[in-house]
């Protein structure tokens, strides 16, 4: 029967629906990219960078811990139930962002958004990996992340446009109401659970790069294996953290930095949109390349391309708008190279019997990068100026790429 076969071609209908769901998931993050930092400084008159960036810190920490348990929940219940729960928790978010009477309500909205994203985005990843099997993981992750981050960028651009013409609130957040309703309805009525596909693959595979592990270990064993015991998984986890450190930094810093440099709100919207759109669309190409060329080359060189993006922005080689656009293109391109390769590499290294939990641990470390990046940016910006937050992120990214270069071994056997 078709439903018992692994592969993208065999399961393209469900795969396509999951891609559509992830468009809605990504769009929910895009709601905040351009407008929310400006709400903090202009509407609530917050002077401290750390306080302004606190909504990113709240989002990142909550999403990270939710990622950690999402795999366990998926294995204990079903992928679909966890996906639906994520949407239910996310329903109040656009209303809170649109009408919050104080900054604390914005923070609460980001706690809910972090839980919602940790459950819903994690499940779209796990469900696609379940469906396609090992042959097309890079392609599957490229399409998944392209849909999500493409929606992040386009929504950031759209909210910037709406804010320019209608004000910072509430109109830019009406888009999010549509996302939550469509995403929830699709998840309830058309998405089918995929755990049986993971069970099918588990019967076919006895050994991964982390060794033979056909039984289901506990979460603490998986946490240690993914975080530091396995050299490949450690290299992948730290690279994921630094990637989202860059994103967390740019999320908070770029709107305030470029406004201070004289770039208008529409220009900031374009800068904020270019990064995730290039990141998203680029993965349609880099995902399959991760299957063809291997995971490691894309991860290493993707990190170095991101460093180049920091250099262009940090050294102010052009006028602010041009530097922001070129730097964001380079950051997006580098992240597009890295993102699907990292997810595919985790899936290579972890046995299907505990892969969902290992992906949850990886995504825990990756999304802690949001909080760490925003916190570092706030502290560095307060003492040395926002441009130094860009410099520091570039230096950290360079070291992260070198770690992958030295410590990681390729996780797939490339055919000659």
UniProtKB/TrEMBL annotation:
Membrane-spanning intervals of the chain: 12-31, 51-70, 82-99, 105-125, 146-167, 173-191, 298-315, 321-346, 367-384
InterPro entries: MFS (IPR011701), MFS_dom (IPR020846), MFS_trans_sf (IPR036259), MFS_Transporters (IPR050171), Sugar_transporter_CS (IPR005829)
Any one GO CC term of the record: plasma membrane
Occurrences of domain Major facilitator superfamily (MFS) profile (ranges): 14-412
Keywords from the named record: Cell membrane, Membrane, Transmembrane, Transmembrane helix, Transport
Pfam families: MFS_1
Major location (coarse): membrane
Sample GO molecular function, one term: transmembrane transporter activity
Compartments (UniProt record): Cell membrane
Membrane topology recorded in Swiss-Prot or TrEMBL: Multi-pass membrane protein
SUPFAM superfamilies xref list: MFS general substrate transporter
Name this polypeptide is given: MFS transporter
Species of provenance: Paenimyroides tangerinum
